[in-house]
Structures are given as C-alpha cells and as structure tokens.
Amino acid sequence: MNFDPASPNPVERLLAAFPRAAPVPGFQGAWRVGIQRDQLTLSAPKFPWSDGAKFIGENKLCSVAKEVFGEGGDVIELLKEVERIWTERAKSKRIRRHLRGPARAASVEVLTQLDSLGWDRVAQSNEDFSEVSLKIRTDDDGEGPTVGLRLSAGFPEDPPEVIHCDLPAVAASAVHPAKGRTLQDLVEQYEDLASLWSPALMQLQALDEYAWVIDPEKPSRWKDLFRRIVVVPGVTLLLELSSPDEGCAVSPSMRFFGPDHSAAPLRQKMRDYSDEDRWDPDWGLVRNLKSALELELPTPEAGDCEDFGVECCVCYATRLGHALPEKSCNNWSCGKKFHVECLFEYLQSNVENRKSMNVIYGTCPYCESAISCEQPD
Fold it and tell me: What integer best gives the mean pLDDT of the chain?
C-alpha cells in the first residue's frame, strides 16, 4: 500500500477517514473506530504503524481486521481496507434478506462466491443473480473488459454459460468454464488472456489516436482485432491481428485497397520492409507503418472523404451496411472507389454490358475506362 504516515498529522488523517473514531481513555494508542454500524476497538502502540497492533473483542469484524492487519503497514490505510471488505459483506447480506424461495436457494452459492471475488468486480446483475457481468482487471489504467455469465440453479456443479465477453473471440475461445470451478478461477483465466492480448490491442488503439480509422466505425478497445485506415487518396489499409504477438513483435496481416497504380507501390514498400526484417518491436505499430510506407498517416482533419476516396462514387456514402468501398477504377486520372454492390447494380443497369458467369464487364461511371465487378454475395 502507498502511504505517507508523516504528512499530514496521523490523528487528523484517522479522523478525516473515520469521523466517529475516538481514543480509549486510559490506554495509550488505543482507538475505538466506527465501521458501518459496528465498532472496532484497536490498540496500536506504534500508531500510525500497525506493528504490535491488537484488537479487543472477538467477533466477525475483528476477524476481518486481524486478517487485513496481518499484511502490516499504515493503520489508517489498513482500516480503510477493513471498511471496504465489511461494506461489501453487508451489501451481500442485504441482498440475501431480500431473496425469497427458489431465488434464495439458487443464489446463496453465487453470492458466497461474489463475496469472495469482491463486489467491486460486479458490473451488473439481474435480481436473482442468475446472470452476472464481471469486470476483468488489467495491467493498464484504462477500463477493462467484462464477461457476462448465466448461472443455473445447479452452479457450480453446472458450469456457467458465457453470454458475452469483451475480449476477442479468438482469445475468449481459449477459456472453457468447467464443472465445479469457482467464479474466481474463471475470472483469473480471463485476466491472464487480457494481459496477454493487451500490448497488441494497445497498438491498434494507437491507430485510433494517430490515424484516420474508417472501420470499425466505433472501435472496441478489447474486442476488435482489425482497423482499416486511410493511407493516401484512394488507398486504404486493412490491418488484422491473429495472435497477441502481432502489432508488437511482428507485423500484423495487411491488405491494401485501391487502384493498382496507387496501391501497388505501397504494397511493395511494405513487402521490402518485411523481407529486410526492418520491423522494430520497440517502435510500435504506428511508427513502423510510417517508416515502411515513408509517409505521414493522414487524420480525419487532413481532408474530407471525397478528397481521399473514402466514399463510394455511386451512392456517395462510406458505408453500405457493413461494407466499405473496395472496388476501384484503375485509370490513373480517375481512381474512383465503389461499393461492390453499388458498382454491380450500376453495371447491370446497362443492358449493353457483358456478363460472364458471376462477373459483369462495363465501363467506369466517371471516366468510361473498362471495369469489371463480381456479383456480391
């Protein structure tokens, strides 16, 4: 625990944290401290340090205090931890009193395990605790992921069902809730996964800050393993992670979208960068991209969607459902982009255009250069 018992005055600190605290007359270093509706009588001869501290009385609150004070340290900080634990236990008792009949019987084991896990880890639950959402702690300062569980009346003999998980599917699939395992065991498995994937996911998060991300529209900090960014006018880059090493130690999977005359040189630069083993794990994803492509990544403030060819030039929108413009005109002076579905419908509307199997051949709506398009799924 981090503390500075010398500043301010330790007694002032104690009274600020526990206004009902009062010294016990006739006993040096003895205090009576109010915690919730209970009182704890503490003798701390080396106050504010916990060395030699003893508790007067034998009750459940004293048992909690003795366990916490076993760690040693600053008396005020240790008392705060006692108060936190006691408050959580009081909360679970109130919940138990309000449960009736089958709901109570089914929930006792769940509540007991949530007591052990800590109520600060519960993000959400329904009334009978048959469904709970638990917070997964991570090493970084940001908000961590959550995992939602459905718990049957037979829990823990019946393993919980995972309703949702904020971690990537490829990571979450490694966790298999098992018969007889506790919620603590399950949460620890998810925490290990979050720690494993966090560095790579932070690299994608850096793209959200320093690049122009067009997909996902609202990236999830923990779940989305890809980003599609604008690179140069008419060209976008799709980056995808398939393992926690990618984005940090090694480069992620990359795919350029755009007319060949603009995208091909960028593909070649990235290929050379990889072949020459120039990817530096200490640089991070953004810096490696800038170095490989020899350019500054544009941001949304760099220009509008039309200037950078982000919009479809048939429907004039960036998104068509979940689809982005992926088809481009290869004419150097044109390079317009289209949703596959928009271009296919446009070409199909001209009865003179030729169709072979599932591909239709015609001309670009803007420059009339030859263009073809496969029938969308």
Answer: 84
Looking at domain 211-304, its CATH class is alpha beta
pLDDT of residue 318: 80
Q: Where are the domains of the chain?
A: 10-89, 99-195, 211-304, 311-377
311-377 is a CATH 3.30.40.10 domain:
yes
194: its two tokens: 């979050």
Residue with tokens 């490829």: 170
The distance in angstroms from the start CA to the end CA of the chain is 58
- Domain 99-195 and domain 211-304, same fold? Reply is yes
The superfamily (CATH) of domain 99-195 is: Ubiquitin Conjugating Enzyme (3.10.110.10)
Q: Could you give the 3-state DSSP secondary structure of residue 356?
A: strand
| CB of 149 closer than 8 Å to CB of 134 | yes
pLDDT of residue 102: 52
Whats the size of the chain, residue-wise?
377
Spatial separation of the C-alpha atoms in residues 315 and 369, rounded to whole Å: 19
63 pLDDT exceeds 70? yes
DSSP, collapsed to helix, strand or coil, labels residue 38 as strand
What pLDDT, on a 0 to 100 scale, did the predictor assign at position 126? 83
Q: Are 344 and 325 in contact (CB under 8 A)?
A: no
Q: Which of 104-108, 242-246, 326-330, 350-354 has the lowest mean pLDDT?
A: 104-108
Mean pLDDT over 7-35 rounds to 83
Give the tens place of pLDDT for each residue, 39-52: 888 888 888 898 88
Strands (E), the chain: 22-23, 30-35, 38-43, 54-56, 122-125, 131-135, 146-150, 161-165, 213-215, 226-232, 235-240, 253-257, 327-328, 337-338, 354-356, 359-363, 370-374
